[in-house]
Amino acid sequence: MDAILFLSALVGLTSVLWLRYKRSQGNSIPTVGSSGIWDYYTGGFRFLIRAPPMVKEGCTRYPGRVFRVPRLFNWEFVVSGSTLIDEVASAPEGIMSSIAAKQEMFQADITIGPEISQNPYHFETIRVTLTRNLAKCFPDLHDEINYAFDETFCLHGADWKLVPVLPTMMTVVARTTNRLFVGPPICRDPDYLKLVVQFTIDVAIRSQIINLLPTRLRPILGPFISSGNESIRKGMKHLAPLIEYRIAQEDELGPDWPGKPNDLISWLLETAEGQERTASRIVMRILFTNMAAIHTASATFTHVLFDLTNHPDYIAPLREEAEQAVQELGWTQVALNRMHKIDSFLRESQRMHDNGPVTLLRKVVDPAGFRFSDGTLLPFGSIITAASRPAQFDPAKYEDPETFDGFRFSKAREDRDRTTSEGVSSRQMIATSADHLPFGHKHRACPGRFFAATELKAMLAHLVINYDLRAEMEGVRPPDDVFGPIVLPNRKAKVGFKKRQ
Ligand code: HEM
């Protein structure tokens, strides 16, 4: 009897898996690994631990084409080669949607709030207004960088101190970023900083738990799993009085009231209308923007410090460049614009160590599907990414791509005889292309990259001018931490710092 029950259960389970497998999309697209039914399931687990080599294998076997990799619950279609990557980056939101993809992968409507995708006005506030205010706000940013490093490093005298890099940079970045988002003293409040750092982790983990639920149960049970409401409640405790005061001042004295602070809260209120003009909605936008800004920038800067201490010969020329620019032009945005070597070092570090082997997460939302120029048709509902790392290591685009060359881009910029003005701007840290995707590419490229570049360049210039640095273990770059398709810098590794006298 037991054997019959067991056999029936096995047949039932196999039939369900077989039906799901048969229904899975894009069966004609080449697969990394075998495309058999069991592989579809075990492959999802394999991708969790071996995503970078699986994407690399796909790009080697199917260069310039689309291939698919198994995720736990669906296939992911990975696009390789600059022609097809350009087509993904250029596709309009109504055909290949970034918002719908984030909704599916991170349950954004439940974990963050549906208003973010229904009315993403913050995107232009960050891309245009924040960027336009960078030069004016630079003294504040620099002031915060100064104190944030001093207080978090807590160095005494001329002694070396080993500092755990990622958590330290997370604090410094959260603080300097929030100097421009919400201003002092909130940007230094440890409880507020903990909230904005933890929000991203909560969304990342809880969305995956919600994804385990059957689709119909997600809107019902998801809100109990999400920490969204709790985070907004905590954010309200810190920010509601400030936001309500600003709304009242604006209602009474007009949009340009005397003493209006120059920060993200004010810039958001310039556009927010109706329900969006309430403290809780502004708090949600601030949390969301922090989510996009802090972990990305602190991971990038941690990689930069691993690269710098692993190649210490770069410290002297970077220091010389920064000191010279600051001596001539002071701590200003104009001085930063002069720092081509610092810009190049950051860009090279991003090229070799961005956040994973794939980027440009999209979902096909056109009912007719999406047809690439090579004829490949991806059906409605397909989840798509672009193979960024293989593109950034393409020997046809980068000379000796496996070798870290910190001045790769500044050398090219300074070769004035051969470089056009377009050639110069295409080699700056903020420039995106199908061969350089750390900030995405084209119309959905990161709107905060102008701010990120200013912040990270100022941090690196400040560090090399004021500190000596050395690796925890000479000649050993700490290995990355890999979580599926997300690659982070080593979370435990340390770097030695000493205050320069
Ligand atoms: C080194 C730091 C950063 C990196 C590497 C980075 C990278 C990215 C990438 C890859 C995307 C997605 C592009 C796409 O899907 O096509 C993105 C989107 C975005 N980034 Fe950044 N970013 C950084 C810093 C920032 C900062 C400082 C801000 C805010 C001031 C910011 C705000 C955003 C926003 C709002 C989006 C759009 C999110 C959405 O609505 O989908 N980012 N970023």
From TrEMBL:
Keywords: Heme, Iron, Metal-binding, Oxidoreductase. Its cofactor is heme. The keyword Iron applies. It comes from Mycena maculata. This is Cytochrome P450. One of its GO terms (molecular function) is monooxygenase activity. The keyword Oxidoreductase applies. The lineage of its organism: Eukaryota, Fungi, Dikarya, Basidiomycota, Agaricomycotina. Pfam families: p450 (PF00067). PANTHER family: CYTOCHROME P450. Belongs to the cytochrome P450 family.
